[in-house]
Amino acid sequence: xxxxxxxxxxxxxxxxxxxxxxxxxxxxxxxxxxxxxxxxxxxxxxxxxxxxxxxxxxxxxxxxxxxxxxxxxxxxxxxxxxxxxxxxxxxxx
Amino acid sequence: xxxxxxxxxxxxxxxxxxxxxxxxxxxxxxxxxxxxxxxxxxxxxxxxxxxxxxxxxxxxxxxxxxxxxxxxxxxxxxxxxxxxxxxxxxxxxxxxxxxxxxxxxxxxxxxxxxxxxxxxxxxxxxxxxxxxxxxxxxxxxxxxxxxxxxxxxxxxxxxxxxxxxxxxxxxxxxxxxxxxxxxxxxxxxxxxxxxxxxxxxxxxxxxxxxxxxxxxxxxxxxxxxxxxxxxxxxxxxxxxxxxxxxxxxxxxxxxxxxxxxxxxxxxxxxxxxxxxxxxxxxxxxxxxxxxxxxxxxxxxxxxxxxxxxxxxxxxxxxxxxxxxxxxxxxxxxxxxxxxxxxxxxxxxxxxxxxxxx
Lengths: 93, 357
Hints:
heterodimer; A: 93 residues; alpha/beta; 2 helices; 25% helix; B: 357 residues; alpha+beta; four-stranded mixed β-sheet; 11 helices; 31% helix; globular
């Protein structure tokens, strides 16, 4: 007997969000780091900053830390992102 | 509570040869929790919606971080897959509304490496309608209703918010409550107020409470009738959790079965008395972290006192469990006070403003 069953996934899409234009080079650019505040981010981001500056010529690196590592970044941090050419986040443990 | 749904179901339809083929369709697409599912047919999904008087496109809510809308139709499909009957669906829908309140922090709760499950506690007359058993084996396979309601929340997380292991769900270990973690309170066999009433829902209404919860930690003390001594055992487990897991205060649930409950009730203690006692007793100095290998994070704050509960209001006391045995359970929070337990009346609008005046 043929069964007709439904797709259980969410076919309603969240608001359509277009990703920002990707920079072709980081030379002379500003990169933001958004840490979730966990200990492991300090060494990771410090090494990443060295690499970005020495190998890719990044001019400035801005460090910011979320007030709650389990929640989205604070509005004041999100508001700053428009001043940066690239951002690195999503790194925690 | 039966009516007629308005509007047709719009979800994509798959045709499969038989029950076994349906299982393979759902498993191969990553749409299950690894267990067999009930094939969600139009008749079964419509029956859930009709029971709850919901149109298929009714918005249950919008997940606050990823702004993902959740429709009644999609939630009903997942509830059917979990094994829910129509009379279970209003509880599933209300639990989801509660989970999507800002203070529950659903995205953090479901994506964290900490790996909590969503504990569901049912109160009110609906417990009897669905045949929930709040006695023997209350935290496990006690009955059909609580098993499938708890499972429905997880399946819906998997399918509606992509909370799959290794995807949005970044859990390191998890615990078995992530299959299903639901119980009803034994309101008939206690003098205490139902949890929902303690948390502000009018008496006589059915309600559901959701809490981001770690695995239950069972305690035993059958060698006293003194409420203080009994509760000291619960406090010790809460302190142990602060030492071994997270020192920070949040919602804790404790489940007190009949044997210990009767000693406490006989002494005239209310749930509030229990909460105030445990608020005082469940606390440690930060320096104790050094005893369990966490000296690195004590720093110069060793004398700081951390309470397991931010206030007595943050304890969820639940009367449930089999009639014999000097056992109880402490259910710790996922991660301190980052998330808050939410209680919602079933059949009421959780976002509606109270009447003015």
